[in-house]
Amino acid sequence: MALRFEVLGRFNRARAARLTLPHFVCQTPLFMPVGTQGTIKGLTTEQLEDIGAQIILGNTYHLALRPTSELLDELGGLHKFMNWPRALLTDSGGFQMVSLLHLADITEEGVTFQSPVDGKPMLLTPEESIQIQNRIGADIIMALDDVVKTTTTGPRVEEAMYRTIRWIDRCIEVFFCDSYAIGGLAGGESKDSFWRVVAQCTAALPGEKPRYVMGVGYPLDIVVYSALGADMYDCLSYTYCSLWYSSCTRGDYLNIVCKNYTRAYIHCLVTKDAMGSQLLSYHNLYYMMKVCMQISATNGDVPEWVCDAMEVAGIDISSCCTPFSSSQD
């Protein structure tokens, strides 16, 4: 089943849409919690449903190593394996060319990793990445790209760009392409440069297809990118932040969503018990779901809370939400 994307409302370049996938009908803009190996740290799939998660992200490279895509296929796919009834998106494994560069050898054929499990070589080609993701059973799969750090300069950047185009052509030969991802960002470049690249991409991409900004999930970034016409986001930070005892808040006042527990109790837990991190993960992910729901529910004007967030960051909201017209939109 191909995905179906229907724009339900617009405000200048921003839009709210319905994204129909094999396992779930999603509302955008949306934030995707990251479950690299089929689990969100500290939370059950039932809790993720409770807070409104629509899509969970898994990682092709890590799932191919353990438990292996063959085993997942035998067990009915990742949905059944992790007891998740809603949608799944799998990364292609390309990011590991940066995070695990010391284990990778990149050629035109693909990327060969040295397995951290048994030390054996693992060749990941564009075609094999697609096949693994199909065995995993993801609703949305990603094309393998040649990823370099955003701070890389010189001929390696051009080499990676053209190789990625060739690899995408190879992916399209074995699978169809019906959405677009903006990636290779959020790796150390300036925020201004980051935002400008996303603005250029959303202005050029077809308006009838979903746009996914990969690896991005800070609330202010999501507000800006949604204003620029992006639809989907993911980020590890919100479960990792809980391990560092950090919590999302709109201002100085911390309104914990875990209403059955006092802040004093949670403060005590985070210094002595793993349950504190679990409660903060629950709160942080709920906070992000609520941010996306508020953006989607906007009607006619830029919401006051968005203007306030931009003002705190020193950003003129008009520069992000200027009217945009395109023959493709």
Characterization of the model:
One of its GO terms (biological process) is tRNA modification. Keywords: Zinc. Residues 13-174, 178-296 form the tRNA-guanine(15) transglycosylase-like domain. GO terms for molecular function: tRNA-guanosine(34) queuine transglycosylase activity. The protein is 40% helix and 17% strand. The protein is an alpha/beta fold and 329 residues long. It has one domain (4-307): Queuine tRNA-ribosyltransferase-like (TIM Barrel), CATH 3.20.20. Strand 12 (211-213), helix 9 (219-227) and strand 13 form a beta-alpha-beta unit. The chain is globular, with a radius of gyration of 20 Å. Mean pLDDT is 86; it is low at 321-329.
Looking at this structure, what is the CATH superfamily? Queuine tRNA-ribosyltransferase-like
Order of helices and strands: EEEEHEHHHEHEEEHEHEHEHEHHHHH
Total count of strands: 13
Amount of helix: 40-55%
Gyration radius, in Å: 20 Å
CATH level-1 class? Alpha Beta
Give the domain tally.
Answer: 1
Strand content: 15-25%
Global structural class: alpha/beta
In CATH, the topology is named: TIM Barrel
Give the spatial strand order of the biggest sheet: 4-13-12-11
What value does the average pLDDT take? 86
Gap from first CA to last CA: 24 Å
- Gross morphology: globular
* Second CATH tier, the architecture: Alpha-Beta Barrel
**Total number of helices:** 14
Low-confidence stretches: 321-329
- Biggest sheet layout: 4 strands, parallel
